[in-house]
Design a protein that fits this description.
Radius of gyration: 52 Å
Number of helices: 16
Distance between the termini: 94 Å
Helix content: 25-40%
Oligomer: single chain
Shape: flat
Length: 1304
């Protein structure tokens, strides 16, 4: 708690109110603010009881308030404003606050947030509101450019804004810091010192541009709005470079450069600003990616941005050259820039940065004592008695010197052992009584384990070092390179060596790669000797004579002289000298008459030159490589003017020159007016005539063109004189508003004026942008116009439509323009275009689409478009990453495989006699497939998952049949357009399109039924074939198959038909309800037929329900629980009808639709749990699982409501979609396991029944065999009896048969 309190106190202390404006109760002036699109002298007015800046009919479209402030060192800024929203702000209009390159505040306001009428108009949708704006953000620039504006697009009479109570708070840097960041402590930021600063003044009069070299640009100071800068609009741009060189910088390790870069006009994405430091690229940026101001400040019509840049990088040199450049490729009037607030900081040395600097002895990067360097000062290691620069040379008593590591290790000796206690004895077992070098563990004073690098010698109880293991121990000098028997050895022919490294070789040898190599004896002959034997020259080269064994050169005067005498040598700048004559000169010299003369103009000062500036300009201080005085300079030394310049001249770079703008006419100047306004009589210190002046002398106009009048040396048009001038759009001879030509001679909206002043009221066409739909990752917007329009140019008008997403980089979206009805030249049509928008980024807000037309359109009366720009609010993009697409596709594939597996299992179960599972699974899968029609904007992951619902559809098969059977017109039906989510999935609302599926299903079943009847008849005939009478077993098999087929046919007439109808209920009810809810063309008789079919389906459903309800009288025979247990069909059909009714008729009320569907599923779940209408327990479990999953899914769908989109991010909705998909897939997987178990039980039952049947058959055969044996015995006995011989056939009737009749 204490640290939290301290932190809050720290923040409160650092936050300082630095500047405030318009806080008085009554405002009187603009307080030196600048305004775009408004007059600073008339911006104050009352809004109700408040005195505000702007307000009703003042600030609207195209207006911005700006302020430029100089700030103390700080790292964060906070701004608070009281903002007034006046009149009919639309739902897509924002308030913007820019501070330098950042859009620090953006808020959507509309009239619905208004409290009451304050100062705007009264009426519907005209409510005003007062909003308190507060924003906090990081900022460390020396100045701040602030712009407050809006995206309003109507006139001030319709919607406007204003503000007051502007306050700016700063979080200041710690005391003594000239620059800092949020993380810096006072000690850290004080290490930065400023070495130079340029162009930091905010007053134009005191702003200085000296110091930097400007190449291909104007170095005079410029002004953009209220902001002075070097370079600026129209004077610096393509190929402009700013360069400066610093010498004798303080010793440092890092450099920081801060500056404000003014990006002016229409920079493209490929245009980049560049900064080099010592020819190393330190900054390169495409400034078009930053937030651009809505309205131009100092350039043309393009947007601009002022960017604060702070660069920090390693730098150690005491000199530095800094260069600004760019990659601009257009004229300076189209792309330009300015720079100001340049500050150069260097960071002084810091102990601990591992860099040894001028005031440090060492720097090991830590503050650990006794490691050789502490606090950047050499220190001895622990136990060291003597050291040199941190290297230990000896140790104190009780410490052991480790030579190879130059460290000391403490020696532990135990001199007293307490043998009276068992504890001491046990301890003494592991301690050596006397120190044994290299021993790691002792037992009873005897070493039993040596350290690494040693081996134990048991006989003498010592640890002996192992030579050759590359581990250096205390008694080894080395173990490896330059080592012999673990002792250093010197290389051969070495006189002095240390640690195996030779320091001095023997005489006649030189040192190389730690070896002493013998020097080869060099020849003592001269280089001019051609034949040399044992240092004796026998023949000289051409041009030399052999004299007493020496080669002497024949000089140019034919006299002999000793080689290398001056009379035979060329000057030292000759690279090819022969006999005293030079044939080639060195670099920077030219050969004239066999003599090397320095080149004047190569910027290299040679011995015969006083200077060399690389040009041939006179009076610039150096001319013909000799010092020269500048023009009008009386006294100069070495090209530097020492006297003051004449009046009107200024000393710039040691040259006296005139400066335009100093209000003194001198040199080639004709005039001086102290400004840069063209056509005011004097421009760039030369006379210029005012515009529309027909006669002028020395910048003074004597007569204006027709239609203009001379006033204060300006030719001003006369509005209302009936003469149309080039400054007027119209002139109807009066200064009245409302007649088409306004009081200032501009054409009013919805009027067309001719050259003769005649104006006609014509309604202007307007652009209409309409949001159509969102499908997957695409959004569709339609562009149309309120009237038929045409273009006057021959270009394709599609190329003049410039759509963009406001405040979104153009690389993050793609907009495709599709022609529906193109604009034609000189022919008015209902022009229509469609935009397909794809955004490649997930956004947590609704983006704004800006549609800009760069080419005018006209209606039949030649009236132009009223507005060339329109804004439309889009929906949040359905954007997901590639990884999310793969995961969603995996879910979809799992679902498809699961559904197919379930279908195969249920078919198997139906063949095994369990048809209930087949129809139950089919019903559940159908209900899941209808979840996609809930009219909410599902995340893209869930949309991908729902594509697997097509597995159950036979529509692809029908489409294939239709494709290949062109003559089968009965399979093709007209397309009836749907709406909302049904339109998204391209559902054909024509009932015949869906009804053909059900017809095909029933036709297939009926065909199967007829085929089965035919099979029974064939089997009956086969039973009577004569050749089969000899095969009784085959006959019995045919009879058995016939009996089973007849049994199945009896079932098909009852339950099978009923189950099929129940399964088709989903599609039948859906098609009927959808058919009744879509608009029809009642002029076509087919529409009545389709509606009649739909009504018939609903009546049939109602009859089924009534038949179920008709059994209510049976309550007297059954209890309530048993009755509703048997009446589950009424609940199932009712549930299906209600779900489909809500899906179809509540498409436009997504909140109501979701809540009702959740209640329906929840109530049916309670019914299933309470009444348990399934006799099979597994079917009961499946039903509960399915209904629970549907209830959870529909209940969680509320997260996709439009009203919650501002509270839930798209990523959160995707996470919830993962859960929903997991639930749906899990249900199907559970069903698979249950059906596998069902199949197992059925097969087990079949096997048991088969075994029991075989046992009964065996028992029967055994009984028959016993009876047969008994009869045979009786027959034998009867044959022996004489009485039996007299018996006839009728005699047997007297005796009962011993074969008992059996029930078949």
């Amino acid at each position: 708690m204490l640290w939290l309190t301290a932190f809050l106190l720290k923040i409160t202390y650092q936050q300082t109110l630095f500047y405030s404006a318009f806080t008085d109760t009554t405002l009187t002036n603009s307080e030196n603010w600048s305004f775009v699109g408004a007059d600073p002298l008339s911006v104050i007015q009352l809004c109700g009881t408040y005195s505000i800046v702007g307000g009703f009919e003042k600030f609207a479209f195209g207006v911005a308030a700006t302020k430029f402030l100089q700030l103390p060192p700080h790292y964060k800024m906070k701004i608070t404003i009281t903002f007034f929203v006046i009149d009919t702000w639309d739902a897509n209009e924002y308030c913007h606050l820019y501070v330098d390159e950042n859009l620090v505040f953006k808020q959507l306001y509309d009239y619905s947030q208004g409290q009451a009428h304050i100062c705007g108009q009264t009426g519907n949708h005209r409510q005003d509101s007062i909003q308190e704006i507060q924003t906090e953000f990081l900022h460390s620039g020396a100045t701040a450019f602030i712009e407050l504006t809006t995206t309003l697009d109507q006139i001030p009479f319709d919607e406007s804004w204003g503000f007051r109570n502007f306050r700016l708070f700063l979080y200041l840097c710690p005391s003594g810091c000239l620059t800092c960041t949020y993380e810096n402590s006072q000690a850290e930021c004080q290490t930065w010192i400023i070495t130079n600063s340029f162009y930091t003044d905010i007053q134009y009069s005191s702003f200085s541009t000296s110091g930097w070299n400007v190449l291909n640009g104007d170095s005079t100071k410029q002004q953009c709005s209220m902001i002075p800068s070097v370079c600026g609009y129209g004077v610096c741009g393509k190929d402009t470079q700013l360069t400066i060189t610093f010498v004798q910088l303080p010793f440092h390790t890092r450099m920081k450069i801060k500056f404000k870069y003014l990006k002016i006009d229409s920079w493209e994405l490929s245009d980049q600003a560049i900064l080099y430091v010592n020819q190393n690229l330190r900054w390169k940026n495409s400034l078009s990616v930053f937030d651009q101001y809505l309205y131009g400040v100092c350039g043309g019509s393009a947007q601009e941005s002022f960017i604060n840049v702070e660069l920090t990088f390693p730098h150690y040199l005491t000199f530095s050259t800094i260069t600004f450049s760019n990659t601009l490729d257009q004229a300076q009037t189209d792309e330009s820039f300015g720079i100001r607030d340049i500050e150069i900081f260097v960071q002084q040395s810091i102990c601990g940065d591992k860099i040894v600097q001028e005031n440090e002895e060492c720097d090991d990067g830590n503050l650990e004592p006794f490691d050789g360097c502490f606090n950047c000062v050499y220190s001895c290691a622990d136990g060291c008695s003597i050291c040199n620069q941190g290297t230990c040379l000896g140790c104190y008593s009780g410490w052991l010197y480790i030579r190879y590591a130059s460290t000391c290790e403490k020696v532990s000796k135990i001199t007293q052992i307490n043998q009276d206690t068992q504890i001491a004895q046990s301890q003494s077992l592991s301690i050596c009584y006397d120190y044994i070098e290299g021993c790691q563990e002792c037992l009873g004073g005897t070493c039993i384990l040596c350290k690494q690098g040693y081996q134990l010698k048991h006989q003498v109880n010592v640890c002996q070092s192992i030579c050759g293991d590359k581990i250096i121990t205390i008694d080894e000098e080395c173990d490896g390179y330059n080592c012999s028997q673990c002792n250093f050895y010197c290389p051969d022919f070495c006189d002095i060596c240390e640690f195996g490294v030779c320091q001095v070789c023997q005489q006649g040898y030189y040192f190389q790669n730690n070896q002493c190599i013998k020097q080869e004896t060099a020849s003592l002959c001269q280089p001019q000797c051609e034949l040399c034997i044992e240092s004796v020259c026998y023949k000289c080269q051409y041009g030399h004579n052999l004299v007493l064994g020496q080669c002497q050169e024949i000089c140019g005067n034919n006299s002999l002289a000793v080689y290398s005498l001056e009379e035979c040598a060329c000057n030292p700048y000759c690279s090819d000298c022969r006999f005293g004559f030079c044939f080639q000169c060195g670099e920077s010299y030219q050969l004239i008459n066999n003599t090397c003369i320095s080149k004047c103009g190569d910027k290299i000062v040679q011995e015969n030159e006083e200077c060399d500036d690389g040009n041939e300009i006179e009076f610039d201080g150096c001319y013909n490589c000799q010092f020269s005085c500048s023009l009008n300079c009386q006294d100069c030394q070495q090209g530097i003017c020492l006297d003051s310049c004449q009046y009107g001249y200024h000393l710039v770079n040691d040259i006296c020159m005139t400066i335009c703008g100093d209000m003194v006419v001198a040199g080639t100047e004709q005039c001086e007016d102290g400004n840069k306004i063209s056509h005011d009589g004097c421009y760039q210190c030369q006379y210029s005539c005012p515009l529309d002046c027909s006669d002028c002398i020395h910048g003074q106009c004597l007569m204006c063109d027709a239609g203009f009048v001379l006033y204060d040396n300006f030719c001003t048009n006369i509005c209302g004189d009936g003469i149309l001038s080039n400054l007027e759009q119209c002139d109807d001879g009066n200064q009245s508003d409302g007649d088409g030509c306004s009081s200032d001679c501009f054409v009013e909206n919805n009027w067309i004026c001719k050259v003769d002043g005649d104006c006609t009221y014509v309604k202007y066409p307007t652009i209409i942008s309409e949001y159509i739909m969102q499908k997957n990752q695409y959004q569709y917007v339609q562009i149309s116009f309120s009237q038929p329009v045409y273009t006057q140019s021959s270009i394709n008008y599609l190329q003049t439509i410039k759509p963009a997403i406001v405040d979104l980089n153009e690389t993050l979206f793609n907009i495709t323009i599709m022609e529906v009805q193109a604009a034609q030249q000189d022919k008015a049509t209902d022009v229509q275009y469609m935009l397909q928008i794809e955004i490649f980024k997930s956004l947590d807000y609704y983006p704004i689409l800006e549609i800009m037309l760069t080419e005018q359109l006209y209606n039949d009366n030649q009236a132009p478009l009223m507005y060339m720009i329109d804004y439309l609010q889009l929906k949040q993009p359905n954007y997901i990453t590639e990884e999310q697409v793969q995961i969603a596709s995996a879910f979809q594939q799992i679902n498809e495989v699961t559904v197919k597996s379930l279908c195969l299992l249920t078919i198997l179960l139906m063949l095994l006699g369990n048809a209930l599972s087949f129809w139950g699974i089919l019903d559940a899968l159908q209900e899941q497939s209808y979840l996609k029609y809930i009219n909410v904007l599902y995340p893209q992951t869930l949309i991908i998952y729902f594509t697997s619902s097509q597995v159950l559809s036979i529509q692809p098969a029908l489409d294939t049949i239709t494709l290949y059977k062109n003559e089968g017109k009965f399979l093709q039906f007209p397309y009836l357009s749907s709406y909302e989510k049904f339109e998204f999935y391209e559902v054909n609302a024509d009932i015949a399109e869906g009804f053909r599926v059900e017809v095909l299903v029933f036709a297939t079943l009926f065909g199967f039924y007829l085929g089965t009847l035919s099979a029974v008849k064939i089997l009956s005939k086969m039973e009577l074939w004569e050749f089969l009478q000899t095969q009784p077993k085959l006959v019995r098999l045919i009879q058995k198959v016939k009996r089973k087929v007849n049994a199945k046919l009896r079932d098909a007439k009852g339950d099978s038909l009923k189950d099929t109808l129940r399964a088709c209920t989903w599609d039948l009810l859906f098609m009927a309800l959808l058919e009744l809810n879509v608009p029809h063309n009642y002029q076509n008789p087919r529409s009545y037929i389709c509606i009649l079919i739909a009504i018939s389906i609903l009546i049939a459903t109602l009859v089924i329900l009534l038949n179920q309800v008709s059994g209510l009288k049976s309550w007297k025979k059954q209890n309530f629980y048993q009755f509703w247990q048997q009446k589950r069909d009424i609940f199932q059909v009712t549930k299906k009808f209600l779900i489909l009714f809500v899906l179809v008729f509540c498409q436009y009320q997504q909140e109501l639709q979701t809540m009702i569907l959740t209640l329906i599923n929840a109530f049916y779940l309670l019914y299933v749990i309470h009444f348990k209408h399934f006799e099979d327990s597994l079917e009961y479990v499946k039903s509960i699982i399915m209904e629970t999953s549907l209830t959870i899914f529909t209940a969680s769908t509320f997260v996709n409501w439009n009203i919650l989109s501002n509270y839930l991010q798209y990523s959160q909705r995707i996470n919830i979609a993962w859960i929903q998909m997991s639930i749906l897939v899990s249900v199907l997987i559970i069903f698979i396991f249950i059906e596998i178990y069902n199949a197992y039980l059925l097969m087990k039952q079949k096997i048991l029944e088969s075994r029991e049947k075989k046992q009964k058959q065996l028992e029967k055969e055994r009984q028959l065999s016993e009876v047969k044996i008994t009869d045979q015995k009786e027959q034998l006995s009867n044959q022996d009896n004489p009485l039996n011989r007299e018996k006839t056939i009728f005699f047997r009737a007297r005796y009962p048969s011993k074969i008992q009749p059996q029930k078949i």
